[in-house]
Specification:
Length: 126
């Protein structure tokens, strides 16, 4: 199985920034689509954004202009740069990998992914 290891979570004041990292064990990382999700207490796990094999990115409306996803295939790593953080961004953040070779796969729901990281807590104080 593919293992995903996350880092970078923590406590930050509103308006601050954090960068999350997710490193994958797969030898074919460059062929994976990668996603970020978050889950607040008593809420469903929700889509944050994704980056395709091609480098094309997608974001949920609430983070557009504030969050940026990038990838470094040489390091098997995907990043989530979070700026202008708000208290409503507080959640456990999860990295996910979609390893299917199918072109044009959907990436907006939990069931679209094959592997998940352990999650990392992000807390934004007001």
């Amino acid at each position: 199985q593919v293992q995903l290891v996350e880092s970078g979570g923590g406590l930050v004041q509103a308006g601050g920034s954090l960068r999350l990292s997710c490193t994958a064990s797969g030898r074919t990382f460059s062929s994976y689509n990668m996603g970020w999700f978050r889950q607040a207490p008593r809420k469903e796990r929700a889509f944050v954004g994704a980056i395709r094999r091609s480098g094309m990115t997608h974001y949920t409306d609430s983070v557009k202009g504030r969050f940026t996803i990038s990838r470094d295939n040489a390091k098997n790593t995907v990043y989530l740069q979070m700026n202008s953080l708000k208290p409503e961004d507080t959640a456990v953040y999860y990295c996910a990998a979609e390893t299917s070779p199918r072109v044009g796969a959907a990436l907006g729901t939990v069931d679209d992914y094959d592997y998940w990281g352990q999650g990392t807590q992000v807390t934004v104080s007001s």
